[in-house]
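Technical appendix A lists one of the benchmark inputs used to test multi-chain prediction within the project. The record comprises two sequence entries:
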Amino acid sequence: NAGVTQTPKFQVLKTGQSMTLQCAQDMNHEYMSWYRQDPGMGLRLIHYSVGAGITDQGEVPNGYNVSRSTTEDFPLRLLSAAPSQTSVYFCATSRGLSTDTQYFGPGTRLTVL
Amino acid sequence: GQQLNQSPQSMFIQEGEDVSMNCTSSSIFNTWLWYKQEPGEGPVLLIALYKAGELTSNGRLTAQFGITRKDSFLNISASIPSDVGIYFCASGANSKLTFGKGITLSVRP
């Protein structure tokens, strides 16, 4: 039972490159979300999903895309990376509501040069 | 958007001391959550509060849901070195969870 897994753990991109951050969970949770964490800014919600086939924007969605084709996976796509997207990215899941216990993955540290 | 206010950004205490931190908002919430993040890890839920006035404990941690539903408090008693980390308050509405900016706690042995 792996819980919430994220890959890669570290990534360096050049400005303009695209990439996908992977998030997978084996807890059969309906709610999945992506956050970015920057120093002094706390965790800010990028996108979230309340179930397979349903996604919506969070607080800072610009420059990111998501899809939810299965319950288990919730990938985050950076379309054209910018230095402002340098951050630590966390995926989180919960049983059904955003206020249920959120289980966070280990994070992906992304640097955009 | 909704904002949760936590201050100061950092706190430094001596091992064995008690520490209190609070979280305030201009909006009313039905749930208050407290998470802790240790270095290199994702946040972990410490305490969840679901009713105004509710006081809940988890070991040396005690949290309260403010009567006005616009604030919450977290107390840590008899601090130990492993209490170091970032403490976040969080709450949600309309399927979105909002986090405060967090308080970094340092404990001097």
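The longest strand of chain B covers residues 85-93. The mean pLDDT of chain B is 94. Comparable benchmark entries are summarised in Table A2.
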